[in-house]
Design goal:
Chain A has 261 residues and is an alpha+beta fold. Helices cover 23% and strands 33% of the residues of chain A. In chain A, a hairpin with a 6-residue loop joins strand 9 and strand 10. The radius of gyration of chain A is 27 Å and the shape is elongated. With 245 residues, chain B is α+β, with helices and mostly antiparallel strands. Helices cover 29% and strands 29% of the residues of chain B. In chain B, strand 9 and strand 10 form a beta hairpin. The chains are: A alpha+beta (261), B alpha+beta (245). Chains A and B meet through helix 1, strand 1, strand 5, strand 6 and helix 2 of A and helix 1, strand 2, strand 7, strand 15 and helix 3 of B.
Chain lengths: 261, 245
């Protein structure tokens, strides 16, 4: 009976974690480039009371065994890297990555590299192209002060129109990972390379395996509100049902206790 | 009166076991690919009582039998490229050092050396060994056809093994972590009538309403057994008091 309490407790824990993950997804429903995460569960080890296929009498085998489970645990939270919706803006520096790949940014203090899908790029005081948080993209591209307009082609080439004519400022590069789901989320729309994700391989946007750059668009969050709300309701019911299991067991135990009076 | 103390106690034990089964099923109502355990002890006890009212069957004729229900769970769309769900009979095969394990949970990912693995890092078995995804292939562009074949554009990357146990399905034992093991003489055959869906997960086949009803019946039967046990206790006490003058 007590074992069942622990089992039901793991069930409640699991539903709680589900709610936490859903809450994060819903909080980020408007975050540019956000990728929703999903919880995956697995059942825990079983206590074998009787093995299946054991001999009951000579030559007769019982077809099924008796195994008591110990509940559930989360196996992983996976980031789902499906494309979010594309929204047209009219900012010449806004880009959306259509397909696979991340932009690489440099952290100003340590010089470490981070990766992002958030393409709301801006110009800082020196003309360098930076993300909305001010981190310069790498390799660094600077826009001259006298540039009239800037445009970014599908293959990442950044062109500026200056009074003296057209000038190529540089190329945006995309970076890919063997296992994007293994990237560590650092917050601020940034991901960090880990051992599980593999090393970043750089490439030109548009070549095989890499997405292309769509200028004047941003990629919205890929959170789907309706399915998150449905999952929320399911998790809430699951939590409640598991708590009922504990309550029923408590009643049964109470009766056991009154036997000895 | 057919109810002996041993009979009552074995009833209570069987009910406790059934309660634990219900708890396990309900804890796993969100686990993809989970197959519920059926236990009908309390229902049988209840139906025997309704045939012969006022008598609690405690003579050991009602047995606790627990079987796994391998019926299909619902398909849930997740849009994740490497989420697979089997519609029909069949299992994915994952390799472990102790031998192959069979699972209905098809949430896979790519290890950093390119191997296709499940959420616990165990290799997913392909038609000829583990499936390796080359580093130049992006995860989002892998397409998996209904027979389990992986493609990247026109290049074939391998084929996921889907096997079927037929009548031997009932001899599978759950090992936890979404895996089932098969006894040595149960040989799986390639699954014939199943379809692999990409971007879907198979929901747990636990029916919460049924489990709640079982929970209620278990609780009631438990109470009934306890009441009979308590009455016997009272009788015994009364007899002892009378015997001792």
């Amino acid at each position: 009976m007590i074992r069942a309490f622990a089992t039901a407790a793991t069930g409640m824990d699991a539903q709680q974690m589900m709610v936490d993950s859903i809450a994060n997804n819903l909080a980020n429903v408007n975050t540019t480039g956000f990728k929703r995460s999903m919880m995956n569960f697995q059942d825990l080890l079983y206590l074998k009371m009787r093995e299946a296929d054991r001999e009951v009498a000579s030559g007769i085998k019982a077809p099924s065994g008796l195994e008591i489970g110990s509940g559930v645990q989360p196996s992983a939270t996976t980031k789902v890297f499906s494309m979010g919706e594309l929204q047209r803006t009219d900012n010449e520096l806004d880009i959306a990555i259509q397909g696979d790949g991340f932009l690489e940014v440099t952290l100003p203090g340590s010089g470490e590299k981070r990766y992002t899908r958030d393409g709301s790029l801006q110009k800082d005081a020196n003309g360098k192209i930076v993300t909305a948080s001010g981190y310069p993209i790498s390799p660094a591209i600077t826009i001259p002060a006298d540039a009239i307009s800037v445009d970014i082609a599908g293959d990442g080439t950044v062109n500026a129109q200056t009074p003296t004519g057209n000038q190529v400022l540089g190329n945006l590069q995309l970076h890919r990972f063997q296992n994007s789901a293994g990237l560590s989320s650092e917050g601020g729309n940034l991901y960090r390379e880990t051992e599980a994700s593999g090393t970043a391989t750089a490439g030109t946007p548009g070549q095989q395996g890499y997405g292309s750059i769509l200028s004047k668009y941003v990629e919205k969050s890929n959170v789907q509100m309706v399915s998150e709300l449905v999952n929320l309701i399911t998790a809430q019911r699951g939590y409640e049902i598991n708590s009922k299991v504990i309550r029923a067991g408590d009643n049964m135990l109470t009766q056991l206790g009154t036997l000895l009076r | 009166m057919a109810d002996s103390i041993e009979g009552l106690s074995s009833n209570i034990q069987a009910l406790t076991q059934e309660y634990e089964t219900v708890a396990q099923n309900l804890a796993n109502m969100s686990t993809a690919g989970y197959k519920r355990t059926l236990n009908s002890f309390s229902q049988e006890l209840l139906s025997r009582m309704s045939e012969a009212p006022e008598t609690l069957p405690a003579d050991g004729t009602v047995q606790a039998i627990s079987t796994r229900d391998f019926s299909q769970g619902q398909m849930i769309k997740t849009d994740r490229t490497l989420d697979l769900a089997i519609q029909g009979k069949g299992f994915f095969v994952v390799e472990t050092p102790e031998g192959p394990l069979y699972t209905r949970n098809g949430a896979f990912q790519i290890q950093r050396d390119g191997r296709l693995v499940d959420m616990n890092g165990r290799n997913v078995a392909g038609a000829d060994g583990p499936i390796i995804i080359p580093a130049t292939v992006s995860e989002q562009s892998i397409s998996i056809s209904p027979d389990g074949a992986l493609r990247f554009g026109d290049t074939a990357l391998g084929r996921i093994r889907v096997v079927d146990f037929g009548a031997d399905e009932n001899r599978l034992t759950a090992k936890g972590f979404n895996g089932f093991s098969a006894p040595a003489d149960a040989l799986p055959a390639p699954a014939a009538n199943s379809v692999v869906h990409q971007g879907y997960q198979e929901a747990s086949n636990v029916r919460s309403v049924e489990e709640m009803v079982n929970l209620m019946v278990v609780a009631r039967m438990y109470e009934t057994n306890m009441n009979v046990l308590r009455k016997r206790q009272d009788y015994t006490r009364a007899i002892m008091t009378a015997a001792n003058g």
